[in-house]
Amino acid sequence: MSSSCSAALVNMYAAHHHHSTLPHLRFHISNSAILMTALLCFNSRTHCFLMPPPVLGIYCCTSVYFKTISKEKGKDCCKWIGVTCERVTGHVVGLDLSCSGLQGNIHHNSSLFSLSHLQRLSLSCNDFTGSPVSSNFGRFVSLTHLDLSFSNFSGHIPSELSHLSRLVSLNLSAYDKPYYLRLETFSLKRIVQNLTNLRELVLDGANMSSVLPDPFLNWTSLTHLSLRDCRLHGQIPWSLLLKLDQLVWLDLSGDNLVGQLPKVHSNSTTKISSSLYDSFNKKPEPAVLMLSQLQQLDLSYNSFTGAIPSWIYSLPSLASLYLSNNRFTGTISKFQYTSLTDLDLSYNKLHGQIPISIFELPNLSLLSLEANNLSGVVEFDKLQRLKYIWLAYNHLSVRLNNFSNSSWLNLTIVHLSSCNISEFPYILRYSPQLESLDLSYNQLQGKVPTWFLDGRKDTLSYLNLSHNFLTGNIEQLPWRNLKNLDLESNFLQGQVPIPPPSILVFSISNNQLTGRLPPSLCNLTSIQILDLSNNSLSGKLPSCLGNFSDSLSVLDLRKNKLVGLIAATFKKGNVLRTLDLNGNQLDGPLPQSLRNCSNLEVLDLGNNYINDTFPNWLETLPMLQVLILRSNSFHGPIRSPITRFPFQKMRIMDLSHNHFCGPLPKKYFENLLSMMNVQGDELKYMGEYYYQDTVVVAMKGSQLQLVKIQTFFTTIDFSNNAFRGKIPKEIGKFKSLKGLNFSHNYLTGSIPPSIGNLTNLEWLDLSSNMLVGEIPRNLADLTELGTLNLSENRLVGSIPQGKQFNTFENDSYIGNFGLCGYPLSKTCTTEEAHPSSFQGEDDLEQVNGFDWEIVLMGFGCGMVIGFSMGYLVFSNRKLDRIVKNFGRELRSKLLK
Ligand SMILES: *[C@@H]1O[C@H](CO)[C@@H](O)[C@H](O)[C@H]1NC(C)=O
Ligand SMILES: *[C@@H]1O[C@H](CO)[C@@H](O)[C@H](O)[C@H]1NC(C)=O
Ligand SMILES: *[C@@H]1O[C@H](CO)[C@@H](O)[C@H](O)[C@H]1NC(C)=O
Ligand SMILES: *[C@@H]1O[C@H](CO)[C@@H](O)[C@H](O)[C@H]1NC(C)=O
Ligand SMILES: *[C@@H]1O[C@H](CO)[C@@H](O)[C@H](O)[C@H]1NC(C)=O
Ligand SMILES: *[C@@H]1O[C@H](CO)[C@@H](O)[C@H](O)[C@H]1NC(C)=O
Ligand SMILES: *[C@@H]1O[C@H](CO)[C@@H](O)[C@H](O)[C@H]1NC(C)=O
Ligand SMILES: *[C@@H]1O[C@H](CO)[C@@H](O)[C@H](O)[C@H]1NC(C)=O
Ligand SMILES: *[C@@H]1O[C@H](CO)[C@@H](O)[C@H](O)[C@H]1NC(C)=O
């Protein structure tokens, strides 16, 4: 039989013995080696490779072992899995190498291309990253089926594919790697002209942005046309499309298409009158609408507008209709035929009632009308086959309690968020397949019924009862395979109920839970997100908290009554991303094991009693973006960074309301890279897809809760500490900064003009310090600045006028007796406007022979009693002068 193998395969077999120098488990396959390995992967399991002769053997990734294949079998390639030979000639006519774990390039000179008799070739589901689709594919003139999908080919789709005139099916789909492949009009035209036998064309994910869709649509033999995510844009020439009378499957989803669907009066055999025809196409010839075969129509994720036209409702074979995520308006009509199984009209702007006829469609299995503007009462007791239902986010009132218990056996996904449901739907008792139930944002009240909690549903994996009015305590959660449980925003009481160990996401925030954190929490070894925030949980943190689940990414315990040390030990290699303990009564120092949280992005410890120095050892955490230490007992100076690029990603830094002292950390200001250039073209939020971090930021003078943190939101709040010294001019590097608050410290010197470089600044608070000199003129150029507070300082001269400064009022400046000009009532005399002879900080030191640094450092860092009190006694007269010069603020600070 070996003679019946094609020469190419045998040659390859021989030619590649140099690979036999053992065992590259992921060796780079080039050219013809592909065939060898591929075939072997098929013979064994994936990730196993067979070495060609003379060292014939199979190498698997985990264990290397030889398995001798009999010579006979090894030689007769027609017996290899995936190879089909023509019986008489022995030519290889079929090669199926799909999902064979192949990697590498397919060059033009690959011996693959000498298999000239191939009729069917599949290389799909491999990894040929970097390989173009060789124009040599055009040499397989006998090919009827070519499948190169999901194999990471890239570059142009060659026009030589148009030589494959017998081709019936061409699949270049790659929507998992969109736009790797590109198709130009030139190639497309040639392909359309020559491949007259083509019936299936799948180009999902190819970049067709430069192609006008017309040429496609002249292809009356097509049965399957799929151009999902192809960047087609603009209007579809419907007149041509509707002529594809063999079409069974049409997918134009995700393509930026716009405009209205044509309003043709249709019936599979009705001619469109030319006047109607003209309304959507300028060409004079009348079109005939013939989509009588169409079973699947997917136009989702485009920008279609207008009403869903009547011809859609009268396609006689239609089984699946996906029009979601468009801007369709109008109402939903009756479907003329009963063939429909899947109907997805979600995320549009449809209004009115859901026609009862939909609930009478006998085959309907999927119904998604979520996120429209539908209204009315929905009372359904039919839909025997319904498995998946989404009706959330409309203005519907859903009544589920009229039922006959056998009707609901198939229900698998039930998403009825915000459907005005006030009673637990009893039908769920009879839904043995239920996997996912979302009844969030309804009016469920009272206790969760025992029949619901008793029902052992091992199928249930997602349960969302958030935002209802549930009360009482839940003692058991019986669903053994539950993965997501959301009980947020109810009125649940008692202890924290412990979900089964299968749980991945558990939120019971915003309830009234009490008691301690149960030690059994430590049994949730797979949990990724644990949110118990905003309850009344008390007692100490269990010590397992840092290391009970290797997958824990979010731990949110904010706003409870937890006390004691943060005794948690965070293991090396943990994946914690958010740790939020804000608003408890935790004390003691920070646990040093936080160093091990190399994935940490958000650390919020605000509003506790933590007593520690500034944790500069956190600066090595490469992902840390939000650090909130607000309102604790942090103290001491902020020492210099210990690394070259400290806090590389820091964007929100709130150290306010502590006892930090010493100079502002100039060295940090020189190096906080992300404050300097956060790019923010797109509106993105942290954790957008799995958990939205919430932080409270003092913003524009009031505390705001940010439920989502924009990824380019950057603020610094060091207010209400005892920082002293000058504002470092380096602050002007923070180009992305939106808010800066240094108020209520002992800052001296003048406002550095470099603050005028902070072009994104929206609020600036330097109030209640001891700043001197004039307000830099260039602050008037900060066009985003909406809030300015410079009050209670010792600023002098005329207030800058014009631009932003016209919008600020008196409050921004009060307590600076040397300021004049609008909006203050005090007008500027010539002398006041240019106060050249004012004793600034330096002058004053000379005049008084008095060293500010020492007094303020002594005070700020807690040495006030031993050091500056002595000084005060010693030089009372000088104190009077200081007080005169620097105002009440200082006096009260020094004497309190
Ligand atoms: C095939 O072509 C590639 C790149 O063009 C080249 O590196 C390789 O040596 C060629 N192989 C053979 C066997 O000619
Ligand atoms: C798509 O192709 C066009 C040129 O045809 C190119 O300008 C564009 O960048 C490509 N888009 C993507 C996302 O690769
Ligand atoms: C469609 O095909 C016909 C002949 O098959 C040709 O005359 C016509 O120009 C083609 N239309 C387009 C838009 O390519
Ligand atoms: C379509 O037309 C045929 C004959 O012209 C007719 O029998 C059929 O009922 C029509 N269908 C619809 C939905 O109007
Ligand atoms: C929703 O529909 C009602 C009529 O049913 C209409 O008054 C209202 O403007 C619509 N709302 C939106 C956002 O389209
Ligand atoms: C539960 O539903 C609410 C509102 O519909 C949603 O915001 C939340 O993300 C859901 N919870 C989970 C865990 O999916
Ligand atoms: C905390 O939960 C209570 C209900 O227990 C709710 O009223 C309040 O708005 C919640 N606070 C926050 C900040 O979510
Ligand atoms: C953890 O689970 C095991 C087995 O289910 C159980 O024996 C143990 O008591 C649990 N531990 C706690 C603290 O609940
Ligand atoms: C902070 O801790 C130190 C000892 O570590 C202690 O002397 C000091 O009193 C504590 N401060 C506060 C405010 O608890």
UniProtKB/TrEMBL annotation:
The chain crosses the membrane at residues 854-874. It is a single-pass type I membrane protein. GO terms for cellular component: plasma membrane. Its main location: membrane. It comes from the Eukaryota. InterPro entries: Leu-rich_rpt, Leu-rich_rpt_typical-subtyp, LRR_dom_sf, RLP23-like. Gene3D superfamilies: Ribonuclease Inhibitor (3.80.10.10). It is found in: Cell membrane. Keywords: Cell membrane, Glycoprotein, Leucine-rich repeat, Membrane, Receptor, Repeat, Signal, Transmembrane, Transmembrane helix. Belongs to the RLP family. This is Receptor-like protein 12. It comes from Rubus argutus. The lineage of its organism: Eukaryota, Viridiplantae, Streptophyta, Embryophyta, Tracheophyta.
